[in-house]
Each structure stands twice: as structure tokens, then as C-alpha cells.
Amino acid sequence: MAKTLNKVDVVTVGVGWAGGIIGAECAKAGMKVLGLERGKKRGTEDFLLVHDEYRYAIRYDLMQDLSKETVTFRNTRKQRALPMRQMGSFLLGEGLGGSGTHWNGMTYRFLPYDFQIKTETEKKYGKNKLPPEYLIQDWGITYDELEPYFDKFEKTAGLSGDDKNPFGGKRSSGYPTPPMKRTPILKKFETSTTKLGYHPFMVPSANLSEAYVNPDGESIAQCQYCGFCERFGCEYGAKTSPEITVVPTAMKTGNYDVQFHANVTEILKSGGKVTGVKYIDTQTGEEFIQPADVVVLTSYVLNNAKLLMVSKIGEQYNPDTGKGTLGKNYGYQIEPGTSGFFDEQMNVFMGAGALGMTIDDFNGDNFDHSKLDFIHGASITITQSGSRPILTNPIPPDVPVWGAEFKKSSIENYSRTLSVFGQGASMPHKENFMSLDSSYKDVYGVPLLQLTYNFTEQDRNLHDYINKRTAEIMKDMGAKTVVPGSPITNYDIVPYQSTHNTGGTIMGANPDNSVVNNYLQHWDAENLFVVGAGNFAHNGGYNPTATVGALAYRAAEGIVKYRKSGGSLV
């Protein structure tokens, strides 16, 4: 029998960026907050002098244990969904900081167009620009309404940037720290894109260009450009993450605590409210009930949706009828791009996760789509993130993939290869959704989440268009061999693409087309909030973290308001 614990004011499920922000803001407001984290405690001290590519980048030491819980996947409803047995397309973090520990640190704000995509698309191109099976909708909030929360997140993170993007939304202040170094590789991209008439700017980076103390008094160190960011924790405390910012801030209040190895299996509900959560101690197997006045789901996109489904909160989306919102609008991204092989050697082994330069000329609605067979677009970027030796074996297409010639070419081209890539937006489609699997369960007996997802015609058309733009840039950069990416066919869950999953718990202006309102308060339970990239009504041409952070700060404000007055916040 589950043991019932003492009630807290707020319980968060997951302690990454969203959970850390909610924890810090609510604790500062005087609430007693408990963060439930199914992974272990970890921090900067755990990563000192550990440049172990095999442990972290190959064996995924910071990631979710798929032998305990995974997802099942199929491209279409006609197929049988099967479990994902190893990490591939996306990398689910686990432990203090979540995916905010192993991220690269590229931290863009979504464009103003994104938040009102249906309204703006129809205004400019008419209601039939996309077929009706594409379920685009406005987010129930505008960029201008969200801007103060973007600003707050950026100051908490100390972001480094140059504020030179002419297509970005209006800002209330500049970046807290200057941009990172404009290396020779980035200058090569800058020269070519400028020559082609585009507008390059430095990637907004959570790898800081200089030491910084944020408004909460947390110190973030200066990046050392060691090249071990993606899939790694930072040994210097220079890659902004929850465990060096918002979590310490929450702890200092005396109102916050974290329970590690706590895997939540159910949200408990009575009438129109939730009463707490049930969790299992993954070390002892004991089961606990944690009562709370407010429950906030702040785990990863997929788990937030799964918990609502197993707890029977909200109506499951049905692709046949179009009814229901839970699991609807699952989105991912496309990643067109071009490799270039050069004569000269370059310092590719040094870098940082978000050391890069990008253009937004083909992102959002920053270019005319009147004669194009897709909407939205992609940021186009070059990064110098550090080419590590195990995963980096670049060879031209005419070289065998094994043997002496492969080895010689791989060594020759290791420091002579660059990539220009796009992060392409994903528009929601009626056949792309999340649900519970009817056959497979996790180690705790809870059904696995099932993903039904495939690339659409919109995705393929956008991919082809951006591929051509990246090839043009690479050619102008002077590559002796230019290799554009292959056209996309069916989505495959195995090769890595990006950990930028979105949708399933989308936000909106009314309960007919969304799971939560614009404070991320659940329509069916006023003391339940759901925070994360699952709130995105579609995916954009960027990394999602800054938008998640902004939404988390707004949700925290909503929770404070709710504790004072109760009821719906909109």
C-alpha cells in the first residue's frame, strides 16, 4: 500500500529547466515546493576532467534508461508500433537538470509569426494555403505578451548574443553578455551569406562568452571552448543549466526540496481538481502518495503527455473524428543540410555547443511563400561545436565506407569538413499524434507512450527548398566538394536528428482545441499546470529551450496568482 506523505503547496514532476524555474519562482513567493526527479543528483563536480566520448556520446550516460521505460513507434496507424530499444532520433535526459544538462545551449526566441501562425498565414496566403489535414492553430498568446518572460529567462541564463537578427521580435533589452568568438570558420560563413544578400548573426548561446552573475545571484563561468557540450555536462559550470541557476536559487529560499529516484506513475484527481501524485522510489520499490495544492508537470514532452493519459485527465485525440486534444499536434523537425570538403585544415576540434552563426532569411514567414508549396521555413546555421573523434569520420561520397582508403580519407578530412544545416519547422498533421500503447508497458506496469509520426508533403517540400539554400552557401564558402543532404522519405526513429519534440499538450485560447490555457493551466483541472515544449502548437525553425523557459516563467506567475485567488486564470 502506498504511504501518504505530508502535503506541500506545489509539487513538480521533473527537475529540468521547467521544473527548476517553477520551483525557484514559487519558492521565492513563499510556497513550499517539492521537485520529484526520477533520476539522480548531479552537478558540475561530477564532470570535472571527464572528456569521455564513449561514456556520454555513445553510451548516453546522462540519458533515460530505455530498459525501464521507452516509447513505441510507427509511421502510420496501419503499422504495428514497436519499442525504441536504443536512443537514436532524440535523446531523453534523466537526472537533475534533465535535458538542460546535456544540451548544446543554442537559445533562440521563437518568431512573432510562430505564435499567430494560422492568423498570419491566412491573412497573407488565404485559408487554403495548406490542405485541411494540417492542423495549424494560433497559440493563444502573442510574442509581445511573452516577451517579458523571454527577457527574464535570458537574464537568468546570461545568454551571449549580438542582437543583429533583423527578423527577430522586438526586444526589451539586449543580451546579458557579448557574443562568443567569431572564429575563422564562422567568418567564412558570414562572408558568404553576406555576399549572397543574407543577414548572418551569432547564435544566441548559453555557453557564456564571459563570467556572469544572474539577477538571482548565481554565478556562471566563462566558456573554455573545449568542444564537449552536446551529450555532456559542463565541467566548468559555463554551460548554463538548471543545476547551476534556478535549482540553487530555489534551494536558497528554504522552501524547496528535491526527492531523487522518484518516478511518478499517476496524477491523482478528485472532482474538478487534482490532489497530488503517486510515485515509486526506484531504489527501494516503495510507493508513495505526495499530496499537493498545485501539481505541475515539468518532465519531458513525452512523459507529460503520458502521465495525463494514464491518469485519464483530458480527452485523448482521435484522428478519425478530430475530437480530443491530448496527444494532438505532435511535431518534430526536419534537418536539411550540406557537407563541404575543403583543401585547407581548420580547427574543428575546438568549439562549444552553441558556437555558431545563423541566418533567418528563410525562417518563419521572412520570405514570400506565394509560389511555394509549403509554409514556414528554417534557420540556416554553421556551428563549431567540437568534432569529437569517435563520431566524426567524414568522407566524400566516392570513398568506400571501410578499409584502408576509408581510414586515409577519414583522417585527411577530419579537419577539412564543414556542415551548413537547417532546422526546419514541422507543421502538425492529423495523422501525427501521441497515444498509449495497448501492448507494451514499462518496468512499473504503466503503458508505454506510442508515437505515430511520419514526414509529410509539407516537410519534404521544405526540406528540398532549404537543402538547395545550404548547398548554395557551401559552394560560395569555397568547398572543393559539395554534398547536399539526401531527400527525406519516411521518418526513422534510429539516426539522431534533434531532441526537439513538441506538441501533445498544446496551449490555446479555448478548451476545444487545446489542453492548457496561456498560463499553461489545464482546462479540466484548475490546480494542474503542464509546462514544456509539449505546449507548442507546432514546431519552429529553432531550438525550443528559450520558448520553454519563457512559458515556464509565465506559468510560475500564473501559479502565484492561482494560489491567491483560485479559479481559471483566463
UniProtKB/TrEMBL annotation:
Matching SUPFAM superfamilies: FAD-linked reductases, C-terminal domain, FAD/NAD(P)-binding domain
Name this protein carries in UniProt: GMC family oxidoreductase
* Domain Glucose-methanol-choline oxidoreductase C-terminal: start-end pairs: 428-552
Record key words, sorted: FAD, Flavoprotein, Oxidoreductase
Region listing for Disordered, in residue ranges: 161-183
Domain (Glucose-methanol-choline oxidoreductase N-terminal) ranges: 219-323
One of this protein's Pfam families, by short name?
Answer: GMC_oxred_N
The UniProt family comment states:
Belongs to the GMC oxidoreductase family.
The protein's organism comes out as Psychrobacillus glaciei
Q: Domain of life, per the record?
A: Bacteria
Q: Does the keyword Flavoprotein apply?
A: yes
Name any one GO molecular function: flavin adenine dinucleotide binding
Query: The organism's lineage?
Result: Bacteria, Bacillati, Bacillota, Bacilli, Bacillales
